[in-house]
Request: fold
Amino acid sequence: MLSRCLSTTPIRRHASTLGPKATDSLWRQAIIRKNDSINAIVHVASEDASEALANGPLQKVAIAVKDNICTKSMPTTCSSAMLKDFRSPYDATVVRLLKEAGADLVGKTNLDEFGMGSLNTYSIHGPVVNPFQLPNEDSSWESREQRSAGGSSGGSAAAVAADMCYAALGTDTGGSIRLPASYCGVTGFKPSYGLISRYGVVSFADSLDCVGVIAKTTKRVRAVAEVIMVPDARDPTSASHALRSNASSHSPRLSATRLDGLRVGVPAEYFPSELATSVITPTRRVLSAFQSLGATIVSVSLPSTPYALSAYYVIACAEASSNLARYDGVEYGLNVTVQRTRSGDTAMRSYAATRTQGFGPEVRKRILLGTYALRADAFDNYFQQALRVRQLVRDDFNKTFRSPDVRFMVSPPAPAADQHGVDIIVHPTAIQPAPLIDDNTKQGLDAYVQDVLTVPASLAGLPALSIRSESSIRDSHEWPIGVTIVGQWGSDDMVLRVGEMVDMSLRS
Reply:
């Protein structure tokens, strides 16, 4: 039974009486044993692959890395046949920073192919099974219901939930960290766009992609995020020191243990008709925790929210169509050779065969949708309109927050903060608990609705932290439910500090 093999302590490689090699062997065996049932990790690091430094803030802390982030010591497949044999000649900036901080990279985690999916079922490695177990569940792993770990960073969330690592890196384009975190009952953090380097991350949609962190608690998330949240000259979208400092100066000042003076907005638009009734009580419990800490809860409106999901998929698919054009069988990825014939263009037929065999059905679908949206006769009606909606979503947030978005400030804001605005926004992370893996109703258009509550923050580039409501601990019949805290751009430290305090309040 899985519950018997899940330890209560995150696996770490550290000095012990057994010696480094013996400890590493036990660590590897534990990960492999758990992974047989969960399929969270697609490549376990070898015992001699560690390049961690002897000292650092994350010394010997076990961290897993999503398999679309380049690592020179392990394959980077993006869960795609297109890259099944690919090995990067360099480490992504976030991987290098973790190694310099002393972390042990324990393996690469499963994902939806190229990050395109919400249930982690579109993978050449197979689906990820949610490792969460109900407190009253005593059936064997094989006989219990198999639920999705969420996508696309489902492998990272499941590895954390199963205590296979202390924390894991994921990527979030429209909710790919927050949704799995909600489903698996862990904490997931998407930073402000540009605060964590994307250098060495295989691109899906460049204007939306973010690297983030998944861990059991906000405190652990913050420990890892602080190491990798630094400017990087190799990433042209990385925010400068000056811009980060300017944003931080406008964030509200908090005490160490209280949230007095903090204004929390709850948007009505984030409670759509698709929202399951089981989500309401956990969300109320988190809001009650805010009130107990001294925060003020107010109702706010973000009227452009209903249009955000459609705009997101137009923009994301269009950028994916452009980014994945490089996988042509010549420059990158799989190459399928086609025999020369008397008629037809051999090069074009080889190109078509390479992309047909190399990309899975979901990726092919999104490439076709994005290519159509970028056509000259459709560009204005689809892509340009989606960009206008994106700006409307951003404007909604800026009108709601008390602090300004310093990225687009033309002049300094007024000295007095807007007393009618809010400092953070709180809403459910997902419209429901983790669905069953074999639920056919979630394989069509309904699968895209899973992202309806997460894409607005992505379109606006805002920091978003999904924390677990503790209802599933008190009410043993419930699966985990996540609640998201969203802040103004650059207020990441404040969002994480708020998350830590709410975490402690919920667990007390």
About this structure: The first helix runs from residue 2 to 5. The CA atoms of residues 209 and 433 lie 24 Å apart.
